[in-house]
């Protein structure tokens, strides 16, 4: 009989999901390049977070959306196995965020089939107002997400990109009024905010209790000129 | 008489370990453990203070819960003589524990008032018990009669002489693995679960209570508690209760690291469970003396 009381232990998964807007407007002002750079830059930080949290197995997924949702990384993947391939924006693409949230909810439903896990961390990045050409409104997609127990308990963060970002919808996605809602107005800000959001989300989500401690990290101050909000 | 007394005695062991997330986030140990034993009777309590920011004094709350439980159960343990009356006794004890906990919390608030300038403290002014939110598991045994009470998550398990484990109390339908019932709720007794066990009839060799930190990271999510029970009886027989006492902190360290949460366990075992182990030849290199059985032990690192 093993001397370890209670049998083998395993780290619980921490599902980390980026939901990224690749609509047509992301082609303006170098936004899609900045988004790709931001994701590339955040990965080493997530590796550091994974090492700093021995109790959580950090698994990354990426869902892009424009006219329709598309998994960029569909299989939950350990962060040290991620090789980022650049995202392209969809010319004239819509912002079908409602459909994306339904697709996300379907993925979260599979978590119930597995062993226990931490509440997921979801980071939404978008530069426009949600459209509904697919027939699914943002409100319907959000309600589907919140009706799922993992979606409801997830650490949800959102970043707007540029002046056309629908901050009201992003605030509704976050839910918790205490959680900062940020808008990036230049490439440097987007990198810095995505890094900040990722580190804050991984710390909060990997606490062993729901909403443990809350998100108390202060977001970085804006740097550089707001070029994305001054373009004519 | 002395042999009979020895046969009927109970030994209580306990330990607690801070979780790795608490260390990372510079938070205190939020579990509390308190035990008492006079050899013939034993009382034990384990409480798990909530980690959410709304429960920012939960380390105090869990400590007060453990104290309230042991105080009350010590008061009534001598009355545990008849299975037919023990059920009412344990329910009355739980009611007193909840009331006494709330009283102790209010005394603590008087000594450490909330500061209205902090938003968490401002919210606490409206719901003063909430910052102290905690679960509670407690047990008392006298002679052959064992009672268990539980509010919130955690595990209370009985183990027979044959190493068969069974849950001591009914499941709480409100527990979903993410949220827990709490002493700070408006009506905490609605979440109360109790049990009265005749340990002779049920052939109980030991009971263990643990916070959810011990079990949540087990690969065998459904059966870890059965394995734990089987192991404890086997270890008790083959190596003795003192060996278990020595091992317990290390056994809790690993789930506290991998699971991230504080992890605590209390074991109430028949004192004669390890009697056979004592007959084995003593290791010539073994120079340590047996640890004395201390009353009112509070095991907090």
Keyphrases for this structure?
heterodimer, B: 301 residues, alpha+beta, 5-stranded antiparallel sheet
Task: Explain what you see.
The complex is a heterodimer of chains A (232) and B (301). Chain A has 232 residues and is of the alpha/beta class. Helix content of chain A is 33%, strand content 20%. Chain A has a 6-stranded mixed beta sheet with strand order 3-2-1-4-5-6, sandwiched between helices. In chain A, strand 1 (12-21), helix 1 and strand 2 (56-65) form a beta-alpha-beta unit. The longest helix of chain A has 22 residues, at 31-52. Chain A is globular and about 70 Å long. The termini of chain A are far apart. Chain B has a single domain (3-270), classed as 4-Layer Sandwich (Phosphatase 2c, domain 1), CATH 3.60.40. In chain B, 34% of the residues lie in helices and 22% in strands. Chain B is built from 7 helices and 10 strands. Chain B has helices spanning 2-8, 20-24, 58-76, 83-111, 119-126, 224-239, 241-259; strands spanning 10-17, 31-37, 41-48, 136-142, 145-151, 155-160, 165-167, 193-198, 204-210, 263-270. In chain B, a hairpin with a 4-residue loop joins strand 6 and strand 7 (165-167). In chain B, helix 3 packs antiparallel against helix 4. The longest helix of chain B is centred in the first third of the chain and has 29 residues, at 83-111. Chain A binds chain B through residues 1-12, 52-56, 115-116, 119, 149, 153, 203, 206-214, 216, and chain B through 19-21, 24-25, 27, 50-53, 176-179, 213-221, 223-225, 227-228, 230-232, 234, 247, 251, 254-255, 257-261.
